[in-house]
Write a structure and sequence with these properties.
Distance between the termini: 23 Å
Number of domains: 2
CATH superfamily of the largest domain: MetI-like
Structural class: mainly alpha
CATH class of the largest domain: Mainly Alpha
Strand content: under 5%
Number of helices: 15
CATH topology of the largest domain: MetI-like fold
CATH architecture of the largest domain: Orthogonal Bundle
Number of strands: 2
């Protein structure tokens, strides 16, 4: 009776512990030296940001630098954003939530390296000329030209996003059907696997002469090139994930009376979902690489076309502005895919009873 009463008296929060809470319970208390080191690492990006600002302001320029406050303003905004993030993490810590401060501490060395990289790049371009301008423009040149040409750059970005997502989603949809079918059915794998092995290793640029002859429109050909790379990545990942599902799961489901449809959608796909989502992430990487090749086929807009056009006019600052825009797009899209992956696979980090 006493044990039942004590169990009933326990609050609901103590009956379930998340993996994060279990990790906190298992973590040893840090020593004074470790706490000092953590504070120093957290403050390091702020110090590196100040160093980048001082490098830009106080070291004399070797090249002319019109409108010099654009890059300086960007540095100040980045430093202030890091400080605001730190304040938010401290408020969460005071409220008893350690997850934000742990992420803050984990990412601090990366932020510090980013500020040091910006300072080194500015020193090698604007301050010393080791990287010759205008072939390798400084960050201030790139930011200024991106702002001046923002309307055209935005139009090209929207065109690239439309082409990217259209080809990506077509490739992912077809790749899921092909990969799941080949992974579950040996007969389908017998006929389709040779095609996958034949088409997969072919470089994207190899398809350009064929597409320019066969395709009815260059836009459709560009979509095909992007979809092909996405299809291969998703197909291989889905097929591998389905094949790696434990056979005992299928046998147990058949014993319980599961139909073929239930075996596919209730057993095979859920257990292969980590591999499938990893293939979707790899497909986005392939799509971002292929889109540069696809947009150089003759489309009328897009960041790849913008880079080729800027190169023909020796506008290297515009080239670098488009390149940084591509990097930002890829980073944001990959982050969104990672969020989706964590949400779909949230059962992997669920509560432990």
């Amino acid at each position: 009776m006493a044990s039942k009463d004590s169990k009933a008296a326990m609050p609901a929060d103590t009956e379930k512990l998340t993996r994060q809470q279990l990790r906190e319970l298992e973590t040893k208390e840090k020593s004074k030296g470790q706490r000092i080191l953590d504070r120093f690492i957290i403050a390091l990006p702020f110090l590196c940001g100040l160093a980048a600002i001082c490098e830009y302001c106080f070291i004399p320029n070797k090249s002319p630098n019109d409108n010099p406050y654009t890059y300086l303003g960007a540095l100040i905004v980045l430093v202030l954003a890091y400080l605001c993030y730190g304040i938010f993490a401290a408020m969460k810590l005071r409220a008893g939530d350690k997850t934000v401060i742990e992420k803050y501490r984990y990412k601090a060395p990366l932020y510090a390296a980013l500020f040091l990289l910006l300072a080194a790049y500015d020193y090698l371009t604007l301050k010393t000329g080791v990287l010759t301008q205008p072939f390798v423009p400084c960050m201030n040149y790139i930011l200024n030209i991106a702002w001046i040409d923002r309307a055209y750059l935005l139009e090209c970005t929207l065109h690239t996003l439309r082409l990217l997502f259209l080809g990506y989603f077509i490739g992912v949809a077809v790749g899921l059907v092909t990969g799941i079918t080949c992974g579950y059915s040996e007969k389908a794998r017998y006929w389709v696997n040779p095609i996958i092995k034949f088409l997969g290793p072919i470089p994207t640029a190899t398809w350009i002469p064929i597409i320019m002859v066969v395709a009815t429109s260059l836009f459709g050909g560009a979509v095909f090139i992007i979809a092909l790379g996405s299809w291969f990545a998703v197909t291989v990942a889905s097929m591998t994930g389905i094949q790696n599902v434990d056979k005992s799961f299928f046998e147990a489901a058949k014993t319980l009376g599961a139909s073929e449809r239930q075996l596919v959608f209730r057993v095979a796909i859920p257990h292969a979902m980590p591999s499938i989502l990893q293939g979707c992430t790899q497909a986005m990487s392939s799509a971002c690489t292929a889109i540069m090749v696809a947009e150089m086929m003759g489309v009328k807009a897009g960041l790849g076309w913008y880079m080729a056009w800027a190169k023909s006019w020796a506008s290297y600052d515009k080239m670098f502005a488009a390149l940084f825009m591509i990097c930002i797009i890829f980073t944001v899209v990959t982050k969104v895919l990672d969020k989706i992956k964590r949400h779909v696979l949230r059962w992997q980090n669920g509560v432990v009873k």
